[in-house]
Amino acid sequence: MLVLTRKLEESIVIGKDITITILAIDKEKVKIGINAPRDIPVVRKELFQAIQEQSAVAEQLAAQNKVDHFESLRDLLLQQTPSEEETEKDFDQGK
């Protein structure tokens, strides 16, 4: 793991296309901005892990040819997926 120290408004560049900028520092929270191409997904780690777990369950159900269970899972996932508004609200609140 590479560990870098950055101050407010300083940036880190990853490859040619990704820039991470420190936008605000408030007590124990740091707000960062990530500029990356649209084809590169950028999500919080806990969300990424949840997506991976859900994908594994969906693959297992699909392998068992239990289509009705798969459709139920899909409906459940759609209900649990945060809307764009909720994601922006989380970001604004520093989550």
UniProtKB/TrEMBL annotation:
GO terms for molecular function: mRNA 5'-UTR binding. GO terms for cellular component: cytosol. GO terms for biological process: bacterial-type flagellum organization; mRNA catabolic process; negative regulation of translational initiation; regulation of bacterial-type flagellum assembly; regulation of carbohydrate metabolic process. Signal peptide: none annotated. The keyword Repressor applies. Keywords: Bacterial flagellum biogenesis, Cytoplasm, Repressor, RNA-binding, Translation regulation. Pfam families: CsrA (PF02599). It comes from the Bacteria. The keyword Magnesium does not apply. InterPro entries: CsrA, CsrA_sf. It is found in: Cytoplasm. Belongs to the CsrA/RsmA family. NCBIfam families: csrA (TIGR00202), PRK01712.1 (NF002469). A translational regulator that binds mRNA to regulate translation initiation and/or mRNA stability. Usually binds in the 5'-UTR at or near the Shine-Dalgarno sequence preventing ribosome-binding, thus repressing translation. Its main target seems to be the major flagellin gene, while its function is anatagonized by FliW. PANTHER family: CARBON STORAGE REGULATOR (PTHR34984:SF1). Homodimer; the beta-strands of each monomer intercalate to form a hydrophobic core, while the alpha-helices form wings that extend away from the core. This is Translational regulator CsrA. It comes from Leptolinea tardivitalis.
